Amino acid sequence: MHISKLQLFNFKNHESLNLELIPGVNILTGNNGVGKTNCLDAVHCLSNGKSYFTSLDSQLIKHGQDFFTIKAAVGNAIDTQDTTEILLQFDKGKKTIKKNGKNYPRLSDHIGFIQTVMITPYDIELVLGNSDERRRFMDLLISQLNTEYLHHLMVYRKAVEQRNSLLKAWSGRNMDDDLLESFDQKLIPSATLIHQIRYSITQEIIPIFKRIYAALASTDELVEINYSSPLHENAMQDLLKLNRSNDLFAERTTAGPHKDDWVFELQGNPLRKFGSQGQIKSFVIALKIAQYRFFQEKLGKTPILLLDDIFEKIDESRAQRLMELVESEGFGQILITDTHPERVEKHLSQLNGEHNHRSVG
Ligand SMILES: Nc1ncnc2c1ncn2[C@@H]1O[C@H](COP(=O)(O)OP(=O)(O)OP(=O)(O)O)[C@@H](O)[C@H]1O
Ligand SMILES: [Mg+2]
């Protein structure tokens, strides 16, 4: 599956933009601020129904306008005659997605039709930011593969919220143990399942990630992802008991999967403290490409790869190996943005595939 035509109206800085794309590697170049990243975000919107950068759709409308549309012709790699038109529109606060002119009953029915994996310079937050960022990535990755997971995540969040309200409501009084126990029971099954699924997915993705990092870095740098969770040692029931006095004091649930983390390591040290900018970027790229491979393996679909300013901060040899990697077997459509056309050309000219060069702005 690939996008053969992308048309934007009033989307961010683009009043009207038409891009013809090929199924392989597409390079979008132009100076700072012409709207290259915005083009990738438009593809992300078509895939996920929302921007990569904001959950406020109104921010996506070109300043001074009152609606935007993103239209795409989606081609089928096997049957080239078979194209699907997808139209995403945001008008008067309402978002609709049409497939071949027909509205979806629910927006969520469209999700999964086009898969994307985006890598942007903002992703270093995954390493440098707090654990919320990593849980968000973990949750998004797993929910796309496992709908049961998303359900448990929602049940768990709600149960924690209710338990926190209870703890607050009893502030300064002696808690009714039976009452608290009944609230505990509501979050135990989903907490246990979330932990199990996170554990097994982490175990599956680690070897894929390590293989890709090694191919990209071509050094013997040791990388590791450790899933950290107090649920490795204690069942949720026991964890709640152990933390009961803390929770009563803090008036919130202090332990549970909502505090889980992925600890990234380089040569046995925390990446966020000891990684260079290029090493951190390489780590993130390898993690995202592992996500791409994982989706492909599990869902049997080839996502569109969106590479935003991918060559910034990584050295020439890593950039070259990255291009070799994405040109190898099994990668589908790729959109790459860069301010230096020569830089991308240099890396791609050493490879065989067909490339499409588009200048934005
Ligand atoms: N809703 C909007 N209306 C108008 N302009 C917007 C809107 N949202 C973002 N922009 C503008 O779009 C411009 C282009 O942004 P974008 O990040 O796509 O540029 P870019 O080509 O990727 O630049 P760089 O090379 O610096 O990464 C920015 O100047 C930004 O202010
Ligand atoms: Mg950009």
At CATH level 2, the architecture of the largest domain is: 3-Layer(aba) Sandwich
**The named CATH superfamily of the largest domain:** P-loop containing nucleotide triphosphate hydrolases
Structural class: alpha/beta
CATH fold-level assignment of the largest domain = Rossmann fold
What value does the average pLDDT take? 93
- Beta-strand proportion: 15-25%
The CATH class of the largest domain turns out to be Alpha Beta
Give the tally of structural domains: 2
Question: What distinguishing features does this structure have?
Answer:
2 domains, binds adenosine-5'-triphosphate, 14 strands, 6-stranded antiparallel β-sheet, Rossmann fold, Glutathione S-transferase Yfyf (Class Pi), Chain A, domain 2, alpha/beta, 361 residues, binds magnesium ion, 5-stranded parallel β-sheet
Produce the secondary structure layout:
Blueprint: E1 2-11, E2 14-20, E3 25-29, H1 36-48, E4 67-75, E5 83-91, E6 94-99, E7 102-103, E8 116-119, H2 125-128, H3 131-145, H4 147-169, H5 177-217, E9 223-228, H6 236-242, H7 244-250, E10 261-266, E11 269-270, H8 271-274, H9 277-299, E12 304-308, H10 316-327, E13 334-338, H11 341-349, E14 355-359
Parallel strand pairs: 3-13, 3-14, 8-12, 12-13
Antiparallel strand pairs: 1-2, 1-4, 4-5, 5-6, 6-7, 9-10, 10-11
Helix pairs in contact: 3-4, 4-5, 5-9
The structure holds adenosine-5'-triphosphate and magnesium ion (MG).
Magnesium ion binds at residues 36-37, 308-309, 337.
